[in-house]
Amino acid sequence: MRFSTELYEASRPIFAATLAHPFLQGIAQGELPRDALVRYVQQDELYLTTYCRVYAKALACADTDEHMRDFYDRVGLLLEGEHEAHENLLQVAAVRPDERGAMVEKLPTLHHYESHLLAVAATSDFGAIIAAILPCHWLYVDLARRIVDEVQPTADHPFSAWLSFYASDDMKDSLDRLLVMVDKRAALANTEARAFMRAAYMESCYLEYRFFDMAYRGESWLPQTTANGALAGGRDRHV
Ligand SMILES: Cc1ncc(C[n+]2csc(CCO)c2C)c(N)n1
């Protein structure tokens, strides 16, 4: 079995849970709360900058000229592209130009995901870096294609641009090139290195799920308190 197929099988429940999540269901049905859309885009803009740095690290670690060029192109596309997917969400949320680009605090899940990617990029080899960045690509292509198949969105679907961006053949080709790379690296790796690649991949999968959940529900670093200072959802420590 291809290593990438093994990875996909291991992550199947996470892909299914993500598709069932209200954020993705909202994309499919064309309806999401404004604050979820804004939170998603704000956190994702920050995420993409970090993701681009990790691509650059993959470029530096690449084992062939062909792979170096591949990552060179990815860095370029990411610096120019992706934001068009955000544009769609911001238009639906009716975010004004002057509201954009505001400094926002990194929420815990974004922070966790970035730290994971940067740690793998800083301390691991090419194979593990590919494994860690794979879910970002795979999950979006897989879920966008499933939603497009199911909903058959027309141009007037609120999220048709977002969906066609991730369901496009270019996006799928770019994913397929990553899958070939991860399979090649896994074939050269020993058991321990393959286990590390699998762990890096799974952690990114979980964090992809959590990222949508963070956008949908909101997150805070400190526990939420009620008006009288008690911890919300917990027992009042003062009685
Ligand atoms: C948290 C998060 N995860 C994945 C993506 C999707 N994505 C980001 S970069 C990239 C590669 C091609 O540009 C893809 C598919 C996202 N936007 N945000």
Automatic annotation (TrEMBL):
Homotetramer. It comes from the Bacteria. GO terms for cellular component: cytosol. GO terms for molecular function: thiaminase activity. Keywords: Hydrolase, Thiamine biosynthesis. It comes from Alicyclobacillus sacchari. Belongs to the TenA family. Catalyzes an amino-pyrimidine hydrolysis reaction at the C5' of the pyrimidine moiety of thiamine compounds, a reaction that is part of a thiamine salvage pathway. It is an enzyme of class 3 (hydrolase). It catalyses: thiamine + H2O = 5-(2-hydroxyethyl)-4-methylthiazole + 4-amino-5-hydroxymethyl-2-methylpyrimidine + H(+); 4-amino-5-aminomethyl-2-methylpyrimidine + H2O = 4-amino-5-hydroxymethyl-2-methylpyrimidine + NH4(+). GO terms for biological process: thiamine biosynthetic process; thiamine diphosphate biosynthetic process. This is Aminopyrimidine aminohydrolase. InterPro entries: Haem_Oase-like_multi-hlx, Thiaminase-2/PQQC, Thiaminase_II, Thiamine_Salvage_TenA. CDD domains: TenA_C_SaTenA-like. Pathway: Cofactor biosynthesis; thiamine diphosphate biosynthesis.
